[in-house]
Amino acid sequence: MTVAIEVLLKLLSGLEADQADGTGKAGDEASDFVQQLPGPRLGVGMDSCVIPLRHGGLSLVQTTDFFYPLVEDPYMMGRIACANVLSDLYAMGITECDNMLMLLSLSQKMNEKDRERVMPLMIRGFRDAAEEGGTSVTGGQTVINPWIIIGGVASVVCQPNEFIMPDGAVPGDVLVLTKPLGTQVAVNAHQWLDQPERWNKIKLVITKEEVKEAYQEAMFSMATLNRTAAALMHKYQAHAATDVTGFGLLGHANNLAKQQCSEVAFVIHNLPIIAKMAAVSKACGNLFNLVQGTSSETSGGLLVSLPREQAAKFCAEMKSPNAGGQGPAGGAWIIGIVEKGDRRARIIDKPRIIEVPPRGSQVANQENSPAPTPAAPGPCADIMPYLGNEEAVRELRRALSNPNVQSDQLRYRNTVLKVIRAMSQGVDVSGLFSEMVKACASVDIVQKKLVYVFLCSYATLNPELSLLVINTLRKDCQDPNPMVRSLALRNMSNLRLPSLVEYVEKPLTAGLRDRAACVRRVAVLGWAKLHNLQPNSEIDAAVVNELYSLLRDPDPVVMVNCLRALEEILKEEGGVAINKPIAHHLLNRLKETDVWGQCEVLRILQRYRPQSEDELFDILSLLDASLVSHQPTVMAATLSLFLHLCSGLPPVCLAALERARGPLLAACGSVSRELRFTALCHIQLLLRSLPGLMGAHYKRFFCGYAEPAYMKQRKMQVLVELVNDDNVGLILDELKGYCTDVNTETAQAAVSAIGRVGRSYSDRCLEILTGLLALKQEHITSAVVQTMRDLVWVCPQNSHTVCLALEGCEETLQDSQGRQALLWLLGMYGEQVAGAPYTLEVFIDGVRSEASVGVKMELLTSACRLFLCRPAEMQDMLGRLLHYCIEEETDMCVHDQARLYYRLLHCGIEETRKILLGRRSDPSLGVLIGRPAEPVSQWAPYFNTLEPLRQDGAAEAEPASRESPRCVPCEAKNSRDLPESLSSHMEPDWRKEPQCSGGPAAVQPPGVGTGLSLSSSPTLTPEEFERTWLRLQRLPPDAGRREEQHLCLEELIRSAVVPLCSPHNLQAALQLLNIQMLAFTPPHTLPWRVYLYTHTQRAHAGHTLVLGELLWPGETQKEGGAEPEEEVRVTLRQQPPDDEALKGFFSILTTVLQTVSSQGE
């Protein structure tokens, strides 16, 4: 455990006092003599003591240190101990040590064998490190102790010019660190690999391999001598230094700051840390405080204060292998600056973490591996491989540093231009950062622009060097030339480095009040960039007020920039607050702005709510010209605002959509593919509310030969929406041509589009699909079979035609989706396909080599279904399939499904039939009138956003799944208690009993009769419903024959809102009770009709079929001027007759309609 530095200094404060206040005479004379010797002096509190000697201006520099073992390797532990002792001398700039003593404590707990094996290795490591440092170990002290302790004493006698006193830092210096932090964290993390309770805390942020790599890096870093850095301190005129060890970076930086002669403060912006150690420290809470700078280090790097102009060169040479650098982990990093202050050090709130990759890791190997091009000198920068050569960069450096070139303005600019040209060609010129910073100091504005381009390009690659450019940029912000000021402000905010935020705020504040509009434009956006860089920082109210006032700036670009900046800064508060004066001010100045500005203003105006209808129509009048703008972006933004403001006025919204038709069609013919695609996606939104909006212009959506595939597929989706009786032939012919497109995805999309049209025009579409099967193209056959499956699921009356077309297509199918679709059709309609068992036999024989799990599962289901219809042909094949899937199949899904079917067959054929032979279609997916028109408000929030581009229009138009439809068994529901209300969104809370049934569950209605249950199975097709309804309508109720007898019931139900409700809500409510809606008219269409059916069954009675019609002709006015009534006429026809069941069903239907009506109100 490390003693706090304040406590340690307090404990040691008596040493110097004893020297000054000795009581003996000899002691006083010795003390006076030492104090009178000339030369620098350093005592308690720093890394080493410096004592002047009696002999000719020489000084004794001496240090001692020891600690407990940290690493598992005793040899490396010895090297680390020696490097730690020598590091104190190196922090003084001393490179040669005269003598070392070793301090070693042997542990009492070690047996003789371990002691003889470990201790020699530690001594050898200590000795080897000393020899590497150019010195030798001449003695020491060895003791027996409960713990192992290792350390030493290092001494050197030298002249004052051989060391650097740690007190010369001045404002403007740069702080450099020569080793990464995080050694203690890495060592502890490595120890926790064997401690599960501690490893669990960090395993989510680091892997075991990464821990081992970090541990190796920490060990090698601690064992590396700081001798190279000490030598370079003299070469680059270092002003002060200390080594970072037990008190952490911040502790030693504070101690160094207190020693300075000048009133300075150290500000640390960057923290180079071994990769992943910052995340580990964070995961451990306050255990290490690595990012806070108080985590202990052992044999850490030197913290050096260097002149600003020398820092980059020092780092570059430290990184160079010729100078003794060790690659990425052995370089140096600029971590902060020295400024005027109170002799303290601090780390900014959010320092930049520089992840230093361990030696031997993939990232480090990439950075260290020899390559034809040099890596950027910035530490830990992820840089793409560049083209170019070192000689070109060296030549540019020589030219930029040549005084003759610098004195010739034209030559200097041309040299800078060569740097930019090389950069644009891919040559890594980031090593010229320091030289380019000096090139900023020019009156040539062209040269300044070029230099600024360079600085912004390489600032993120050289974050520690970017501190060098701040003073130049701040000076340019006060230049008399407004263009120079705006350039400096723009590039200062474009550096995008959190460590520079505090230097940017003051120039940006001044820029908001600048006389030049170009400077105000840049300053406004600069505040947005600043907030984006630090989104969690506190918002300055004065800046916000200043930006609000600039909304009335005479320059329109400043006004729009203010809106965007306030949107960014006030994002958490909801953005800009728009009141009536601001809204009308923005509307009146709308035409002054450019296209981008108009779109931004129109988007933000959506927050405003007019206070009256007159104000609303005044705003709409101002926007009318923009609604038909020739700029598609302005038109779209205006239409979006229209829809937002008129959300409560549907007629106004529809009129706006009609007006926008022309600009949208024009956008579909734009030269830009992106614009055409965006227009198509938004037209699909409009068609959801106005299906006939583009009906007369359907030819505009025919595909061009050279159009990309995604454009063709989207156009086909629009064409499907525009099909009607007049154009169905032309559209189908066009789609048929696309089915042979060279792009397989386009061809399959065309086949799918024909299938969606087939829901309304099945005969024509099936003829085309059958013809496509004759092409014998694999991808076309697969798409056709899948489309036929989906079509039969929605329109089961087409099953016979589909089954006839399936003969022989299995030979062409290769993909899993197509084979699954074929198997589903064979399983469901195998009785209509003569060769179905023999087709399945081919699949069963090849099941061992089948790679698709989905095909195997579909094959199991189809084989079981076909066995129920054709047992003689399928028994042997099904037995072989079940045996393989249960005994040999390795996939658990297939295995479990086979066991399920095996056990199900043991329950009996009838039970199996109930499960597997349920309904073959879903009538709710195939409503006769197609998809109803949606209200505009349902999609208006997504208009003029990216959402329409993300959505797949085909998926919305086709609710049937692309997977094979499956019958999911339901549970029967019954209860004795009537629920308080029936909701289309909430299932009634009835008591459930399990029931094995393949079709929909039979529901026992609550409170009506005894044992009455409803079921929508077996399913009625629309044609069967129509034939049965007309036949019963013609027959008298008391027909002679039993099979012709039926009941008819006609009643009126008072329901005020049902005809105006969404048909889908009513359908959902009825389906909860297994009452199936088969067809309905659109809302707001008179007369309003709904057709439905169900099957009833009572205890001790048979099944009956009930057909129903709901009719509402419109509002009827009462006599005497009373409010109109809305009564729905209900007509029910039942066969065979069961009076109790029919009355019970009517009671249920009345309850449902009244419940839906009350919810609609």
Automatic annotation (TrEMBL):
Beta-adaptin appendage C-terminal subdomain domain ranges (all copies): 1012-1154
Region (Disordered): 953-1002
Chief subcellular location: membrane
Subcellular location: Endomembrane system
Catalytic activity, as annotated: hydrogenselenide + ATP + H2O = selenophosphate + AMP + phosphate + 2 H(+)
Xref: InterPro entries: ARM-like (IPR011989), ARM-type_fold (IPR016024), B-adaptin_app_sub_C (IPR015151), Clathrin/coatomer_adapt-like_N (IPR002553), PurM-like_C_dom (IPR010918), PurM-like_C_sf (IPR036676), PurM-like_N (IPR016188), PurM-like_N_sf (IPR036921)
Keyword Signal in annotation: yes
EC number: 2.7.9.3
Tagged with keyword Disulfide bond: no
GO biological process assignments: intracellular protein transport; selenocysteine biosynthetic process; vesicle-mediated transport
Matching PANTHER family: SELENIDE, WATER DIKINASE (PTHR10256), SELENIDE, WATER DIKINASE 2 (PTHR10256:SF1)
UniProt protein name: selenide, water dikinase
Source organism per UniProt: Takifugu flavidus (sansaifugu)
